[in-house]
Specification:
Blueprint lengths: L3 H11 L5 H8 L4 H11 L6 H6 L1 H11 L9 E4 L2 E4 L5 H16 L4 H11 L8 H5 L8 H11 L8
Amino acid sequence: MENIDNIIEIKRGLHKVCGRKLVNAIADLEKCEAFFKDLFVVYGLIYNTETLIQKRVFVAAVTKYFILDRLPEEYLLLNEGKYEYTTKAITKPLEQAVDTYFAIRSTSDSSEDFKKKYAENFNEEVKDFSKEISENRDDSLSDFAKTIKKIYYSKDENTDC
């Protein structure tokens, strides 16, 4: 079962490279959370909500590489630096990109073996996401967000409201 907090954080990462409709199309995929969870494992990251919050840049980068770059050109357009889809029939190509990922992953002996096989499959160099992995979200300026989160998760002491 998917963790809604994780899906929310995945969506926040997706918003860095995708427009709202494409974010929702990716997040609605049956294997969405399994896909990102496995990518975190492949790249040596712990998969949990706290890590997802910090690794939005990584989520955006791997989405572009493993999903968006694998879609036929006629499905996507770039609008103000974010990808949008051009047709309502985007679900099938998205599923195929994720299925291709898992097909290659299932034949791999290790994370390094997978990275090599995946790159070879698409005649590319092995992609290194170390820059994106090392980049954490800057929470120092998000006092408002911290306050809202604290309020959201607090128990309401006044039940008359």
